Prior knowledge:
The protein has eight helices and seven strands, in the order βαβαβαβαβαβαααβ. It has 254 residues and is an alpha/beta fold. α1 crosses α8, α3 (74-83) runs parallel beside α4 (109-138) and α4 (109-138) packs parallel to α5. The protein is globular.
Amino acid sequence: MSRFGDLTGKRAMVTGASSGIGRAIALEFARAGADVIVHFAKSSDAAEAVAAEARQLGVRTATLAADFSRPDSLEPFLGAAFSVWGGLDIWIQNAGVDLLTGGASKLDFDEKLQRLLDIDVRAGMLLAKHAGERMVRAGRGSVITIGWDQAGRGMAGDSGELFSAAKSAIMGFSRSLAMSLAPNVRVNCIAPGWIKTAWGEAASESWQQRVLDETPLQCWGQPEDIARLARFLVSDDAAYITGQVINCNGGAVR
């Protein structure tokens, strides 16, 4: 009997995998037996460190760079990703703009919106769609996108407005893509809540309290919480699950 969430022999691409949620997903997949390609945009040393850690778990790894803000990078990236091991069984569309802690945090509203539309929405949709279509031709596969639990109910402020728009687009797209790629390729979207990535670590005391107040489980989520859900959803144990947006948010219902 195979272990729960077994990914032995599967070949996975995780975009935005040099840190945060992407890093956690790449390592969780390696623990489950999957070979993993670690995508990065700029942080080559961090990506190599993730790949090295995954290799210690006995799987094959590779790293692949691409700047998704450049439209001409997408098709070459797809081709390279599917060529590493002669195909892919899993595609995790996790890469997105860091508007909270990176250089983009200093941009104005219009510039932030454009970055989100370019990378999270346009590139995210095109990569998930075309990766899924390649999997259809191969006869099997699973695609995961990343939404946001508050996209459907809203959050005040620039960040709420921006991320709600972008992530609502991805969530709706994912439901439709699942219908387009069925029956042999499944598509699901994970909608994280308050996950303690770099921004959470540096968040003010008032934000720390707000998270506890809004979350029935009264704690931050960890990147590993998202990773374990992703592992289940791409495994054969979730063979009858597609077209779903699944919150992983400690029960937050504000």
